[in-house]
Amino acid sequence: MSVSPRLPAGDARPRFGVNYTPRQGWFHSWLDLDLDAVGEDLAAVASLGVDHIRIFPLWPLLQPNRTFIRPRALDDVRAVVDVAAELGLDVVVDALQGHLSSFDFIPSWLATWHRRNMFTDPEVIAAAADLVRSLSSRLADSPNLLGLTLGNEVNQFSASNHPDPDPLSVEQAATWTRTLLQAARDGAPQGMHTVANYDAAWFMDDHAFTPDQSAQLGDATVVHSWIFDGTGQRYGARSYEVAHRTEYYLELARAFSPAPERPLWLQEVGAPRSILEEDDVPWFVRSTVENSLQCPELWGITWWCSHDVSRSLADFPPLEHTLGLFDEGGRLKSSGAAFRDAIAAARETTAPAPRGPAIELAVGSEPLLQRSAAAPGGSVFEQWMAASRAGDRPSIRVVRETASGTAGDTRTGGAAATRVAG
């Protein structure tokens, strides 16, 4: 599906949303859910003019034992979805948490004495599928459910730069993704179900999760775009490359699409103060939205995130305390005002003009796609930015032949990325 059923038929305007980070207690608030506090947070979010949120129930709370899924935890997720419905907000639910803001949330039955590979162990895969199926079934009749996403950048657990990786092959990564997407469809056949891989899938040559998987599996192609991936460090905070980072990334994702009409979802983008000065932030928000809207098939933009992480909570990378559109007291920040204004301006924009000539990305073939030339500083990235600066509105064309080109900066990987950025 390329357009939410809640929009009028034929209305292909991009959607706008926010990744919801609870103001009180962060995601630990799932331990003792306060629906009044949730309602206050979401009312503030709705005031920005967004139409959806993305929420993150914690995996260990949903499934503390491999064969036990807590009914009360599923009910809590449904309750938050229902609160959002009262405020006119659609909801995307992330199923496996997974990884959030440099912290890992995996159940104890995957760690230490019970250490298993979450992607290849048959019993673990079956248990994860049971959870996804149970969660989607519990939410299937929610009129404001958009769909499920398979966790938040769960592929980072397999990355070669992870401190304790779960290794797997390209084929095993595809099998894992297909299995869990099917579980989501089993429970909620009408949902828009997606996989949310972080950008190692697009830029790291040795990564088992590939661009083809992101662009072919699930109902939309999801990208998470962060300028602390080397873009901001290499080119500077107010650079052309920073302003057009998401536009480039969306065009890269579109190049791998098997169907021209496949929707693209900018599911995460934020304004990291590790790169940007506070005065840069409104410019960055406006530029990011305006330039992303130049991409055909853009389904929507979901900003990271709603509220700053409270400074009373320890051990977060410093940037995590600054990413909210609202501060930890619930006050609207300049970033929130800029996002609100960008949404309003977007309602008046016309459809993007056709893209121009294509920059070729030669990727070779699986199992190890040569994709680092597309990373910031790589030859394809540089060519695209030069053509864009010249006004060519370039696209990207994937060439399935022996790869060549200069590798770019692949400093990425969940917690690793935030440590580099901070």
From TrEMBL:
Q: Which Gene3D superfamilies match?
A: Glycosidases (3.20.20.80)
- Identify the species of origin: Brachybacterium ginsengisoli
* Molecular function in Gene Ontology: hydrolase activity
Can the keyword Hydrolase be found in this entry's annotation?
yes
| Identification of the protein by name | Glycosyl hydrolase
Quick one: where's region Disordered? 403-422
Which UniProt keywords are given for this protein, alphabetically ordered? Hydrolase
Tell whether Hydrolase is among the UniProt keywords: yes
